[in-house]
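User: For my dataset I need records formatted as: sequence, then C-alpha cells, nothing else. Please produce one.
Assistant:
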Amino acid sequence: MDKHSLIGTISSIAFFSILLLALFLLTVKTKNKLSNRLLAFTFLTVALDISAYFTSSIAMDYPNLMMLRSNLTFLFSPLLYLYITSVCYADFKLQPKHLLHAIPFLIVVLVVTPRYYLVVIQDKLWFTTHFLQLPEGIYINISGHIQAIAYLIAMFILLRNYKQVFLQNYADITLYSYKWLFQLTLITAIAHILVVLQSVFRMTGKGDVLTTIQILVMLQLLGVLCWIILKTMYSPELFRGINSRLHLVEDSNSTSLPQQVAGIEEKKFNANIKEQIDRVRKHMDQESPYLEPALTIQDLANQLSLPARELSVLINHHLDQHFFDFVNEYRINKAMEILKDPSKKELTVLEILYSVGFNSKSSFNTAFKKYTNLTPTQYRNRV
C-alpha cells in the first residue's frame, strides 16, 4: 500500500470514528448537553476537513460544497474555545454575542466568492489548481494560522484563570476538568504545529515530506479519538464548572481592602483580621466542614455567616493559601491522626481517605505526600 492509499484509509477510519463520537455526544443523556453539542460540532468540522482525502473524485460534481467544506475549518477554533468555556463555567449559555466568533469564517467566504462561487466550473477548477499562489489562497493560509494561534493563547489564558479561581473557591483536589481541557488544548497546539509544517512543505513542493506529515496528522487524530473515547468510558462524570461571576482574589483585593480599612486604624484592622481568622479556624476544628468532599468557599461562608468574598480574601490574602490548600491541610492532619491511632489500624487507606473528605486514592496520596513527604502507608509504618 502506497502512502496516498494509506492516508485515504486512515482518514476514512478517522472520519467514521468522528461521526460515531459526534452521534454519541449529541444523543447521550447528560446535564452537560451544551458542552457535548459544542464538542460534537467541533469534531464534525474536523471530519468534514479530512473527508477531502477520500472525496476528491466528487469535487467536479459539487465544487461549491468542496470549497465550503474547506472554509468551515475556520469554525474549529471558535467552537473549541466555546466548548472549553462551557466546561469551565457551569452557568455558561450561548448568546448572540458569540456569533462574533463566526466573523473569520464569513470573511473567508466573502474573499473567495468573486473568483470562485460566482464563476463557471472551468474557472473554479483553475482557481483550485492555482489556489496556493493566488492572493485569496495566501490570505486564507496565513489568516488561518493566525486565528488558530490566537485562539490557542486565549484557551491557555482561560484555563490558567479557571484553575486559579477553582483553587481559591473549591476544595475538590482532583481538578479533572482542568486536566482534561489542558490536555485537549495541548494536543490541539501540537496538531497545529504539524499543520503548519504541512503548509510549509505544500508550498515548497516537497511531496514526500508532505505526505509523511499528512500521515502523522491522521495518526495523531486517530490516537486523540481513542483517548477521548476512553475518557468517556472511564470518567463519565468528568466535568465540574465554576460560576463565571467568581473572580481572582488579587483582581478585587486592591479595591475592596482600602474600602474596608478606610477610617480604621491599622492596628484595629489587624486585630479584626486576627479575630476572623481565629473564628474560621475554630469552626474548622470544632465542626469539621472539610469532611464534605464537595465543600466550596460559598458553603463555608454560609456556615460562618460571612460574605464569600470576605472569606476568600481572608484565606487567600491574609493566610496566603488557596482555599483548596487550606481545606486539604485539615484533611491531611485528620488522616494523620487516624493513621497514628492504634485502635484504628484495621482501617484501610481507602477507608481513611473517604472518611476525611477525599474522593480518590491518587488525589489523597498526592496531597499526603505534599504535606509529609511520605505516602500514607509509609507514614503509618513509621509511627
